Protein: Methylthioribose kinase
Organism: Jeotgalibacillus terrae
Amino acid sequence: MIQRFIELGEGYADIYELLDLIRYNKERASRLAVLHTVINDRKVVSPALIMKKTEMGNFQAIYISREGIPDLEDPSERLKLIESAASESGIPIVHLEVQPSAVFGETELYFQHLIGILRMNRYIAPLS
């Protein structure tokens, strides 16, 4: 199985894209992972929409907006919108503490690290 992160940007337009992915693909969406981390003493979150694998091609997409949303005591408006859309669509939400992507030499290594964490917690399927 191929499991791959598809990175969206950090702006509102990208968040709206993620919202539409949640609303219009709720049958394919498996769960929403909210990844919490700290970058330069600043807490941020990365929402990641985990899709079910495709019937053809054995592909599992994970859409992510990486480290662009502030993790505040009172959740930011962007995070509220995303979690609300997931809840309304019946998509389970999980929260995980992870390392920041800057710890890894390349973004692809960071994504492989996250795939390992998601597999270990059984939020995505193991390789078959």
The beta strands are 2-8, 29-39, 42-51, 59-65, 69-70, 93-97.
